[in-house]
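Weekly modeling sync, notes
Attendees: S.R. (lead), two postdocs, one rotation student

Agenda item 3: backlog of single-chain predictions. S.R. asked that every request posted to the team notebook include the full sequence so nobody has to chase files. The rotation student volunteered to paste the first one in as an example of the format we agreed on. Action items at the bottom.

Example entry:
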Amino acid sequence: MPIIITEPALGYGGGLATLWFEESLADAGARGVARTGRQAPPAIGALAAFSIQKGSSGGFAGYFTPLAGDRYRLLGWIGKVALDLDYCDRKGRLAAGRLEGQGLLAQGLARTGDSDFFIGARYVFIDTTSTLERERVIDIPKRDVDVRIGRLSLIVDYESRDNFFTPSKGAHAGAEFAEANEGLGGNVDFRSFFTRAFQYIPVGDFVIGLRGDYRTSSDSNPFFPGPSRNCGASQRCATRTTRRRWSRRRCARTLRAAGPCSASSALARRTGDGRTGRRRTPRSRRAWVCAT
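Predicted structure, as returned to the notebook:
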């Protein structure tokens, strides 16, 4: 299966993924309906690797399996990445850098009664090293250069889709509250919350898909896993820099001249800061990535 990458912060690239199915989606769904009255997914294994024009690359292996008639779901993966990108601080200054890391994930979910809700836990371990062109980058303390994250999450999931990969009806939603600390194998302490929802509505021969998500984290989280923000100026800067039409210096000037983004302005209204909201904006919400 091909992987196509068009992320402005990384560049253009691609990769390949190999998926293994214990049985077909149709056979697994039919077996689930006969046993429990609802469709069930098959066990799936995956191997994938990618490469990007500017030097980024990565790969991972994972396995998912339902147990006891889809009453339990287990998921695990391991991976390694090396990403070349530019970091834009809240003042619009660029710093070319490279983020290298490896990690693993282990997750277990259990169905609550005969409902479509699952509850469970997820453990994630990530070991990263960041190399930056500038010695001192605002918003990135020294502790964020070599980071180990050991994080344990409480997960609540809702699953009623008729198909894992190409759903035509149903919904998928989830919420995750995570705690990262040194006792879990890391060297940083922070908390985060993430929720998302997908709804698929069949309309004749078409399917309408709706999506919403929300993410927040404490100020002590490292710079790279924090919530992102959508800034039109940074997107224009990323696009033009990727095309090599603007120098880094001009890119930084454009970001500074653009002023606060809509997300920052909205936060300013919520926090009562009528000027820009930057002083009271958490660090994790006021930085963004800009391509080289």
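Discussion: group reviewed the output briefly. Helices lie at 25-36, 232-242, 248-258, 262-271.
Action items: rotation student to repeat for the remaining queue; S.R. to check formatting next week.
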